[in-house]
Amino acid sequence: MRGQIAFKQSYHRSEKIEELRRFEERALIAQNIQQSIQDSEGRPYFDADWIAKNILKLTDKEILENRKKRNEISSGTNFGNKLEDLPE
């Protein structure tokens, strides 16, 4: 039983690392798109939410949570910035 638990934890860690690697690749693609594809006034052509959903593969809920957190930070109401304050 103990070996099974260790294997599951190791497998889960490997899955998480692979998931983060894929996200990092998508983030680099998103950054390149934002910087290289612009309108005639030099603004990014693609909307940030479109990139978040279609390139970064975030859910609508994750996009809204991120927007809320950015608004809290910009308004100075971001008091819960410790790791233990983050939802699971």
Helix and strand arrangement:
Elements lengths: L1 H35 L11 H7 L5 H16 L13
Write a concise synopsis of the structure shown.
This protein has 88 residues and is mostly helical. It has 3 helices and no strands.
State the end-to-end CA separation. 27 Å
Secondary-structure element order, N to C: HHH
Find the structural class using helix and strand composition. Answer: mainly alpha
| Record field, number of beta strands | 0
Average pLDDT number: 84
Shape: flat
Structure, described:
This protein has 88 residues and is mostly helical. It has three helices and no strands. The longest helix is centred in the first third of the chain and has 35 residues, at 2-36.
Keywords:
single chain; 88 residues; 0% strand; 3 helices; 66% helix; flat; mainly alpha
